[in-house]
Amino acid sequence: MHSSxxxxxxxxxxxxxxxxxxxxxxxxxxxxxxxxxxxxxxxxLEITSNNMVFQNVDSNANTFIGSGANVCNxxxxxxxxxxxxxxxxxxPNDTYNVVQASTDLAIATKLLxxxxxxxxxxxxFDKVIGIGHSYGSVQIQALSATVPQMLDAVLLQGFSMNGxxxxxxxxxxATEVFPDRFNQSGLPSTYLTTLAxxxxxxNFWFFPYYSDAAFDHNRKTEQPxxxxxxxxxxxxxxxxxxxxxxxxxxxxxxxxxxxxxxxxAVPANSTYTxxxxxxxxxxxxxxxFSVYIPENTGHAVNAHYSAPDVYQEMLAFVSNVFGA
Length: 324
Hints:
Layout lengths: L1 E3 L3 E3 L27 E11 L13 E12 L3 E5 L19 H16 L6 E3 L3 E5 L1 H12 L6 E5 L14 E2 H4 L1 H4 L8 E3 L3 H8 L7 H9 L4 E2 H6 L14 E4 L5 H4 L29 E4 L14 H17 L1
Parallel strand pairs: 1-6, 2-5, 2-7, 7-8, 8-12, 12-13
Antiparallel strand pairs: 3-4, 4-5, 9-10, 10-11
Organism: Neolentinus lepideus HHB14362 ss-1
InterPro entries: AB_hydrolase_fold
Keywords: Signal
C-alpha cells in the first residue's frame, strides 16, 4: 500500500442537470484527460439500513449498492463518484425508500472511510478535500458535519443556505421527456428530468453567458433524478459544529436554485453582503471561511464562459490547503 501526502476527493460532482446520461442512453465513459493516468474502479458497497431513513425495510438487512469511481493518480489523486441512480451506478426501482438523500450520504460516508483506509486506489492520504456541486455540495456539507474528522477542507460550488426544491424545473418522467433515450432503459416513472429546454435554462443557465453548443450538449445528456432525492435533499444540511478546516463557497452571481437569480439580494440590515456568506453560520469553528461569486454565471457554473476563471480560483483554494 502506497502513502501519499496529498489527496483531492471530488465527491458529488454529478448534478441534476449536468451529469452524463446512463450507459443505455449514451453515457460517456471518458474518465479523465489522457495525461491523468485514470482508471475506472467499481465497488460493491455494503451499507446497513440502520444508517439510513428506510421505510418498510428490515433494519437488520444489508443493502448492496454498486458505486463507481474514476481514480486519477497523477501529482494529486482525484476520485469522482456517480451517485446511486446516476451514471454507471445502480438504478434501483424503489425511488422513495432506497434512492433518497440519506442513502446517498451513507454511501458517501462509506466511500470516504474507504479512502481514508487505503481501500480505493491502494493508497492512504494525509489530506482529503471534499468538493461538491449543487446536490453534491449538500452531501459534502453534511459529511463535514457528521464525520468532520475525515475531511481537511470543503469546497462547496453552487451552494447556499437558501436552496429550494426546483419546482420551476417542472420535473417530469424521463421516459416521457426523452423517450428516444430512456424508453428502453427500464426506469420507472419516478426518474425525472426537467420538462423542457426552457425549464432547464431557467434553473441552471444565465443567458447569454454560455454557448449554444454547451447548452445543446447538456440538454441531450441530462441525467434523471429521483423523486426521493428531490424531496429529501434539504434534510441533509446541518450545523458543522466540530469542523475546524477551511470552507470555501463558489456560487454564480445569477444562481437560480440557491440565490433566486441574485446572490446579492440580502436584507438591508444584514451583516452579510451576499447570500452565500450565510453559509458561515453552519461553521462556527472553521479556521477560515471564504466566498467567491463569479459574475454573469448561473447554477451550471461549469458550463458558463466564466468556468476557466472559476477553476483557477478553486484550484488556488485547493493549493493553499495542500500547502498549509
